[in-house]
């Protein structure tokens, strides 16, 4: 086989599709942080009844945390296409369609201001957002530099399709879903 025509290994393909990765810690209140499409805050009209994790509104997205108030570790990745889904390392995983109308997205917690998410490659447009969460039921404060709760947000261009609950195993997520 011609070496120039050989398919690339999956890992090499994945890394070339990753446009950016940003990790921050944000301060959340009322079990929520937001990804905003405008300068207006998102006030969810309802709790995430379908999945216990994500509510998509007209001007942004509200993501729920197990922690009422405190620091949450967030990693945001922007991809050219759908990345592989790692269900083993996370307790709750949801995918949802997002229609973006502005050239930038900002991730907001309370009291810390926004941290800019690098603009999507084709903004505005249709995207898919995968939200991963772990340790949502741990309400301990930060110890030894580790935050109890962590989230991974992955975003890529995608035609609209229905939201999917890919995994729900945290006690907190199961309780929230049962209450809706």
Summary?
The protein is mainly beta. It has helices spanning 10-17, 171-179, and strands at 18-28, 32-36, 54-57, 60-64, 70-79, 92-100, 105-108, 114-117, 125-134, 150-157, 164-168.
The assigned structural class equals mainly beta
CATH topology: Substrate Binding Domain Of DNAk, Chain A, domain 1
* Low-confidence spans: 1-13
- The overall pLDDT, averaged over residues, is 77
Q: Using DSSP, what is the number of strands?
A: 11
The helix fraction, in percent, is: under 10%
- The second-level CATH architecture is Sandwich
Q: What is the rounded distance between the termini?
A: 56 Å
Number of domains: 1
User: Which class in CATH terms?
Assistant: Mainly Beta
Tell me the strand percentage band.
35-45%
- The CATH superfamily appears as Competence, DNA-entry nuclease inhibitor, ComJ
Largest sheet: 6 strands, mixed
Spatial strand arrangement across the major sheet: 1-5-10-9-6-11
Helix segment tally: 2
Shape: globular
Radius of gyration: 17 Å
| Element order: H for helix, E for strand | HEEEEEEEEEEEH
């Amino acid at each position: 086989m011609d070496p120039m025509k050989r398919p690339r290994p999956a890992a090499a393909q994945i890394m070339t599709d990753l446009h950016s990765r940003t990790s921050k810690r944000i301060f959340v209140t009322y079990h929520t942080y937001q990804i905003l499409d405008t300068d207006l805050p998102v006030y969810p009209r309802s709790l995430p009844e379908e999945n216990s994790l994500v509510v998509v509104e007209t001007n942004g997205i509200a993501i729920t945390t197990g922690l009422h108030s405190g620091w949450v570790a967030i990693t945001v990745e922007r991809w050219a296409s759908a990345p592989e889904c790692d269900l083993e390392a996370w307790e709750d995983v949801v995918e949802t369609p997002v229609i973006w109308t502005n050239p930038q997205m900002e991730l907001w917690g309370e009291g810390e201001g926004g941290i800019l998410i690098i603009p999507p490659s084709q903004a505005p447009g249709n995207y898919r957002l995968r939200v991963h969460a772990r340790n949502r039921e741990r309400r301990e404060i930060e110890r030894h530099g580790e935050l109890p709760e962590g989230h991974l947000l992955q975003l890529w261009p995608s035609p609209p399709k229905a939201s999917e609950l890919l995994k729900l195993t945290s006690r907190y997520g199961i309780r929230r879903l049962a209450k809706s």
